[in-house]
Write a structure and sequence with these properties.
This protein has 147 residues and is of the alpha/beta class. Helices cover 27% and strands 18% of the residues. Strands 2-1-3-4-5 form a 5-stranded parallel sheet, sandwiched between helices. The radius of gyration is 15 Å and the shape is globular.
């Protein structure tokens, strides 16, 4: 995929520190309940928020290929990890009961610096706004782990 499509990447004005916003998803799984709090913290660290599903495929290639740091909840946008340059820092967030490890595998194949934050399972009453509550201190510790 990388060899075929990278040359067609569509340039646009973007940040190299990316926070993936999944709020346009029609699904409630892998939604971060405290998204406003998380993004407020990340904005202070120089991150910009992107709704990857609203970008064209060629813009998605450009965004991921030019990123130095990508943080977000597990979802389809992470398939674009195939276009990242080696050593891009990745933090994927997903509920502890979520079994999928495909993004870890893509990261390993592409020599990306991958970290996973597994969040505590929430009961059904807590899941109305999504199934992930991401503690800021856990996110901060994970970011610091890259050195």
């Amino acid at each position: 995929l990388r060899d075929v499509y990278i040359k067609y990447a569509k340039r646009f004005d973007n940040n190299e520190k990316i926070y993936i916003d999944r709020t346009e998803s029609e699904f409630k799984h892998c939604q971060i309940q405290n998204d406003k709090e998380v993004f407020s913290f990340l904005r202070e660290k120089g991150f910009s928020k992107y709704r990857v599903g609203e970008l064209s495929f060629l813009e998605q290639i450009y965004l991921f290929n030019n990123a130095k740091f990508i943080i977000g909840a597990h979802g389809a946008a992470f398939t674009n990890l195939a276009f990242c340059k080696p050593n891009t820092n990745i933090i994927e967030v997903k509920p502890s009961i979520h079994p999928n490890n495909v993004n870890k595998r893509i990261s390993k194949i592409n020599n990306l610096n991958y970290r996973l934050i597994r969040t505590k399972e929430l009961d059904e009453n807590q899941k109305k706004l999504g199934d992930i509550h991401l503690p800021i201190n856990q996110l901060e510790d994970c970011i610091k782990s890259f050195g």
